[in-house]
Design a protein that fits this description.
single chain; mainly alpha
């Protein structure tokens, strides 16, 4: 782990700060879309939400354990209250809500509702917490997102049985993740520390869940399915996903980091049609045409000048 972190730090130090943020945002979009597709496939074939949650949080928890064991792994200014907020909103509860929703609704619904509602909830949270009022262009984007989600949800609920349950769970998951985004912004954590806090805290929360429900499908499912999900859930989403998204937040700010979500509905819809044989309806195309530009405007990124990071700040954030 120290060797990997050192290589990661050297790579980041050789790239101009804004480019690190944009590359991290693109990687977060690809990983997020891939995780959605893998989750939908997993819960509709050989594994369930609890089994996927074990792979999603236990693997990175073991890898990142040294950050917990080292004294310097816990920033002095991080309160237990904020730590709990990060774990509850970016960890196991978020993951279980998404995985439960994936059992009811197709992957394209996940891409539209999770990614689409994230900037809506983030803007609402920024207004409630710090009094940030969205610019007119941002309000237009948020209106496009809401219109796209409403049209898609109405059509999907008529054609896919039980899809409304999944869509509502996806909205709840986006609400949780927007709180995580705002909480991480002022947490004082580096990206790897944030990943350690979220994954190790989630692994502890998993213990009572396993005692009650267990994870029997990990033993009965084909080993190839478990291996692929371990790679997608534990390594890609659990380790790399949180880290690169945290880098994007640190380098670009929450608004520009949320801009990466504009690619997720398109990537997930395309991947769902190609890999999972999900139908591409006119309602889905309409939703993508409304939500994608809405995300670009609604994130607020296009209305903000790109910040220049100081040398000291760059070093801390890329750790």
């Amino acid at each position: 782990m120290p060797v990997f972190a050192s290589l990661f730090r050297r790579l980041c130090s050789s790239i101009p700060s804004p480019w690190i943020g944009w590359l991290a945002a693109l990687a977060a979009a690809l990983i997020g879309s891939g995780w959605q597709l893998a989750s939908r496939h997993g819960v509709t074939t050989t594994l369930g939400p609890v089994e996927l949650a074990v792979l999603r949080y236990a693997i990175p928890a073991l890898v990142l354990a040294p950050l917990w064991l080292r004294r310097c792994g816990w920033p002095a200014g991080l309160s237990y209250r904020r730590c709990a907020l990060l774990v509850l909103c970016g960890g196991l509860p978020f993951g279980l809500v998404v995985l439960a929703g994936a059992r009811w609704a197709p992957a394209a619904h996940m891409g539209i509702f999770v990614a689409g509602s994230l900037p809506v909830f983030t803007a609402l949270g920024g207004w409630l917490v710090s009094g940030e009022r969205p610019a007119p262009s941002r309000l237009l984007g948020l209106a496009l997102i809401v219109a796209g989600m409403a049209a898609f949800g109405a059509a999907g609920w008529r054609t896919v049985e039980g899809a409304w349950r999944g869509d509502l769970l996806f909205l709840l998951a986006a609400l949780l993740w927007s709180v995580y985004t705002l909480a991480f912004r002022s947490s004082g954590l580096t990206p790897w520390q944030g990943a350690a806090v979220v994954n190790l805290g989630s692994a502890l929360l998993l213990l009572p869940v396993l005692l009650v429900a267990g994870a029997p499908r990990l033993l009965s499912a084909p080993w190839s399915d478990v291996a692929w999900q371990a790679l997608g859930q534990g390594v890609a989403a659990g380790l790399l996903g949180l880290a690169v998204y945290s880098v994007a937040i640190a380098r670009l700010g929450p608004a520009r980091a949320a801009l990466s979500a504009a690619l997720v509905p398109l990537l997930t819809a395309a991947g769902g049609a190609w890999l999972l044989a999900e139908p591409v309806s006119g309602a889905l195309l309409t939703a993508v045409l409304l939500v994608v530009p809405g995300l670009a405007l609604g994130s607020g990124a296009l209305a903000q000048p790109l910040r220049r990071q100081s040398a000291s700040g760059t070093g801390r954030e890329s750790a």
